[in-house]
User: Fold this.
Amino acid sequence: MRGPVVSGAQFERIQALIRKGIDEGATLVAGGPGRPDGLERGYYVKPTVFARVTNDMTVAREEIFGPVVTILGYDSVDHAVEIANDTECGLAGFVAGPDLEKARAVARRIRAGRVAISDAFDFGCLFGGHKKSGNGREWGEFGFHEYLETNDTPYTPEAASSG
Assistant:
């Protein structure tokens, strides 16, 4: 397995976060520092899984933007929501469970730009982060504004024909 990332700077950032997870006591289940076997060059990260992560660890609090998963345990639904909301970030969240109404009730309590239920993203909905995550909204009317440059000069037929 390979996890390509966009640049050398991002590769180094992810590697530092993986080492930080190990140093802070998270249990490395798979992956780890370095490139995948057989890839001596390029910006490839080993898909990495950490278990026994606590919410005060850096790997739980940072948006890694690489193939790194952290597993945090919780004692109750209320505790899970508390963990999910105890962050300066909030790009996306996920809720899974057999009872759709209960999953929706939990999803409504999570402060993130988007919360998927049972891994179902609706690509027709707006997307963007919450808190320090993301910038604006995509996939809707507001997303168009990211591609527009407005001009405060009023339109007149004379100005249009002189250009």
Q: What stands out?
A: DSSP finds six helices and seven strands in the chain. The CA atoms of residues 70 and 110 lie 18 Å apart.
